[in-house]
Amino acid sequence: MRFLLACTFSIFLFTSLSAQTKVDSLLWNTVDVRPQFRGGIKSWNRFLQQNLNLRNLVNDMDSTSYVDYGLRQTALLEFTVCEDGKVCDVDITNKDNISPLFAEEALRLMKKSPKWIPGTKDGKAVRTRFKQSITAELN
Fold this sequence. Notes:
Layout: E1 3-11, E2 27-28, E3 36-37, H1 40-51, H2 55-60, H3 63-69, E4 72-81, E5 87-92, H4 100-112, E6 116-117, E7 119-121, E8 124-138
């Protein structure tokens, strides 16, 4: 079984981009420094390769699943990186476009994620909403 993982990082931008306002009392809409996985993208890719388990997805794919979801699936994740670096409030924004097993695995993986380096605003760690995609290509 071979699979290809691709990921992209992007900060979640809210409609109001004022640098000094908060979205709510706990979540900033803009930050000076974006959150990042400890060790950067190379460490994130290593984490994915070591922890993403697609065996169940490959084994359970039938012809209907191939037609519905294809061999290449991308989970679009949106989550919060808290002040202490914990990942919380994980949502998959395109849940209807990926197989339920891949969605389940992507959520499991994010729950297993080690702490990130939090975003900062005015030198202080702040809760920041973040987008991350995980793409699996099943061969």
